[in-house]
């Protein structure tokens, strides 16, 4: 499962073969024990475990990385991060980051009016930045300006030229001096899945001509000192550190150009993009990154300094808007495996043909008996042909349901035999490449992919998935995961691998004890982007603090959304639902399909489900 490669030290496998969270040296707690306590309290799964200590640790790690680079290079400015709350607006996330970041003057970034309203209410260090990105109307701008009156270091980023006039107008009307940032469209691009966020065709930002027009316009207004920040962003999850360096160089040259044009910029904002190594491969693969947080900080500081020295301009305060890198590690989604299905779980006795079986069944049995290294390809093709004929003959009524069952079981047995034969072969014929996936078990997990891991569905994002225990026991099954939505897309068939992406995940045969999988590094974007497919709602969550001695506290348990809430979000109202059921029950009593006592019970059950969790709740 590559735990040491992707965990960044925040998780580890104990000697006992269980996964532990390790928020700081000396502190560790087994995830299984936390889940067991939640279940013992009578709460239902799935659940997200959140570790505020991990969030605090990530804030410290990022700030210290910049501080040590700044000290090492003798950089004369300093670093001030901002957390873009769109990555995860959950209260525990924002408050944990704000608290851990206070002493570093780590600020926040808002991309909409609602996000700004949330950020303005947070306790922040007086120097901490509150960056306002995204397209803005007058209301957004006014709110940002009021933020300055409240003593907050609010910077309004111009994303398109026309926003400048709006800002000037509102600032005059309120009598508040604005602090303005300007987002520049770098021609440098990121790497990986968000490459399109940068470059000339980027959605946000001004080109060089518009940038100079902003300077001229502010000069006209005698307000050039309001322009305090140059902002850039080349996309999230930058996999290749070289792209960071190229972008930061271009950004710093632009900064120097603006200084030369008379601007007095204080901040150079290099945006987000600091990656997360989801697969632990340390490569430029889209789910990885070929650098560390420390190397990122060092390269940003070094590059900014190098250009500033060459251009003879002051070294600015460096700002980064790292979101993914701060939040991904803090959350673990716990998936209970509720059932297992799959083609290798056929009833074995079906594999031996009965005397009176159809000739095709005898043929397929012969194939099974005679497969060898020399002929497996030919045998495979014959078996595929026989299976096709079997289905055609079944449709025409010439093959019985019993023979169809035998034929399918035999076909699966043939595939299993071939898979075993070629498991160590370097060369596998094209038609057999998917064999492992075809033969894999389907572990049915109690969750909705669309609610909890939307990026896996939408953009094939990879997340490490690991059983919470039995890690000192060799897994014997190969599996894909399916969720409980009625959507065939609700499945996970891509898993992390150091060299490639794996089609199956090795897992243990679930026994009598519940078998839980943890989905890791899912704390960035997933909570926010999730959707209510099939009315599966937000998952319950536990906020957990780890204490010395392997102990932990569940500080807060927030129950997931109830069915009623999901139904009401679609425009229905609870009394309307209950009235309808009552009317139907009364009518049923009249025609005799329901008794008075049963009506009472039915209404009670209905009400209980309305107030219940939307996920499966098995008693045992
Ligand atoms: N800043 C801006 C302007 C963004 O658009 C984004 C997200 O793409 C971020 C910051 C956060 O990026 P990341 O989560 O990669 O740090």
Jot down its keywords:
620 residues; alpha/beta; TIM Barrel; Methane Monooxygenase Hydroxylase, Chain G, domain 1; 10-stranded mixed beta sheet; 8-stranded parallel beta sheet; 21 helices; 23 strands; globular; binds pyridoxal-5'-phosphate
Description of the molecule:
With 620 residues, the chain is of the alpha/beta class. Among the domains are: 57-322, TIM Barrel, CATH 3.20.20.10; 343-436, Methane Monooxygenase Hydroxylase, Chain G, domain 1 (Up-down Bundle); 574-610. Strands 4, 13, 14, 15, 16, 17, 20, 21, 22 and 23 form a ten-stranded mixed sheet that branches. Helix 4 (91-101) links the parallel strand 5 (82-84) and strand 6. Helix 3 packs parallel to helix 10 (293-311) and helix 12 (359-370) runs antiparallel to helix 13. The radius of gyration is 29 Å and the shape is globular. The two termini are 28 Å apart. It binds pyridoxal-5'-phosphate (PLP). Pyridoxal-5'-phosphate (PLP) is lined by residues 84, 87, 133, 233, 236-237, 271-274, 321-325. Pyridoxal-5'-phosphate binds at residues 84, 87, 133, 233, 236-237, 271-274, 321-325.
Strand and helix layout:
Elements: H1 3-6, E1 11-13, E2 19-24, E3 27-30, H2 31-40, E4 47-50, H3 52-73, E5 82-84, H4 91-101, E6 107-110, H5 113-120, E7 129-132, H6 138-149, E8 153-158, H7 163-174, E9 180-183, H8 208-220, E10 227-231, H9 241-260, E11 267-269, H10 293-311, E12 317-319, H11 324-327, E13 331-341, H12 359-370, H13 376-396, H14 401-422, H15 435-439, E14 441-445, H16 449-452, H17 454-459, E15 465-467, E16 477-482, E17 491-492, E18 495-496, E19 501-502, E20 505-507, E21 516-519, H18 526-529, E22 540-547, E23 551-558, H19 563-568, H20 574-591, H21 596-610
Parallel strand pairs: 4-22, 5-6, 6-7, 7-8, 8-9, 9-10, 10-11, 11-12, 14-16
Antiparallel strand pairs: 1-2, 2-3, 4-13, 13-14, 13-21, 15-21, 16-17, 16-20, 18-19, 22-23
The protein binds pyridoxal-5'-phosphate.
Pyridoxal-5'-phosphate binds next to helix 11.
